[in-house]
Amino acid sequence: MMATRSNVTMMIMYEDESVDVRFSNDSRLYLSICGSEFVLENAPDPSSHPLQPSEKIRQRTRFTISGYKDLMIGAVEFRNRYATRPYLPEELIPTQNKKHFYSIDSTVEWPELHFCKAGWGPKGETMVTSEEGKASLLLSASGEDFTVEFTCNLSQNPNKHKSREPWDQYVSQHTQIKKRKGSTGNQQHSAEEIRHGEEQQIRLKERGEPDSCSPHTGIVHCPQAKSEEVYLSTRVIQHHSCSCVPPVWLYPLSLARHFWTKCQSKPSGDAGRDGLGETEQTELPTTSLDGTTVESRRSRLPEALPLTCTSPHRHRWTCKDSVPKGDQALDLPTELVKVVWCHGVIYRIMEGATPVIEVSLDDGSVIRSNGVLANYFTHYRPQAGSGEVKEITYHVKSLPPDVPGNVYSVSSTLTRASRILACHSQSRHSLKLPATPSCLEEVTFILSSVNRLMNEKRNSGGK
Description:
Layout: E1 8-14, E2 19-23, E3 28-31, E4 37-41, E5 56-60, H1 66-82, E6 99-101, E7 107-109, E8 118-120, E9 126-129, E10 135-139, E11 145-153, H2 167-174, H3 191-206, E12 231-241, H4 250-265, E13 281-282, E14 298-300, E15 337-342, E16 345-350, E17 356-360, E18 366-370, E19 373-382, E20 389-395, H5 410-429, H6 442-462
Antiparallel strand pairs: 1-2, 1-15, 2-3, 3-4, 4-5, 6-12, 7-14, 8-9, 8-13, 9-10, 10-11, 11-12, 15-16, 16-17, 17-18, 18-19, 19-20
């Protein structure tokens, strides 16, 4: 049986943001840290010799063959949803999701609280949108996690020069034309210069551009500083925890939490969002977040990683069965993990003095471990209709029985969460740092090494 998106059993993002996708037929797909390369390890043939190694296929992500393209789209989507920076090759983005833009500026400005309007989702989510519409933030009904959607330019080659042709070249050529003011002879240009200028004017007029040079005077009228290059972009969706917020989303999250808290403090009948559709908006009174500056309301959206990796030799692949198979072991990873997807449930590890695991469920509720009391979990479950959030505490040794009709099992979900956290803690204590940096860390590694050598040389010279 060939590996397909339909038989994915688990997706893992490790702490270094590499991805491991596991299939029900024992195939594995490994995506590099930068996302530009992958290795597909096919399941061993049952009729083959036990010592015969399984087939491994290594390809560039953007150049994957059609048979693996669906797999790569799913793996890259999962990676981009939880990675710091997305990887967006044009070849894997559907045509209907590509948009044309004339700017690559990733700066957005969020509205002031007095002028901010909150939208409400169908499941009680709170939504705020940037002033330009480039980004939006959707706070879940539980108030414990949020989803962001923003416009991002597709990945480009790191050495690609963003020139502003053709008018930049045209202005550059004609700035060399001397402006002659004096005798009639000095004011005359050669026939070739005049003909060249007229041809350039015709080309500009055909494209609807203003004249940038008079061929008879040699005076250059620079056009507007506007790039003619069209950039492809797409919408990226990312999921974050309110307990670990990237700085770029701090201000919009504070706006959403303000409106969410207002609705929580109202009586059930006056929640202010009952009956509101996904696109409807309402204004609520403001009591905080006043007096914010323009700079505090501006943020720079995450930018896509380069299309190609400058250090593919740094890619590390863990193509081995490092854990026992079977439902009892749950085939859990033995390395530091960041996010685990299993049977539609998201398990997120948040580092700190004491690691915490957070479980995001399909109904908008969130379950989180209680720090040092790792056997205790708190379930933040929003109530339908009222908008209130009910907190329920569980103990791993005394989990509630499954309720018929529920879309998920609290018992099996928390059992898996507890084992993932235990494996993570064990890996943390037995961690051995890699001898070489990753492909994304190489530049930082080189700079730090140079600074260290310079300091050593300076110290040795001073003795």
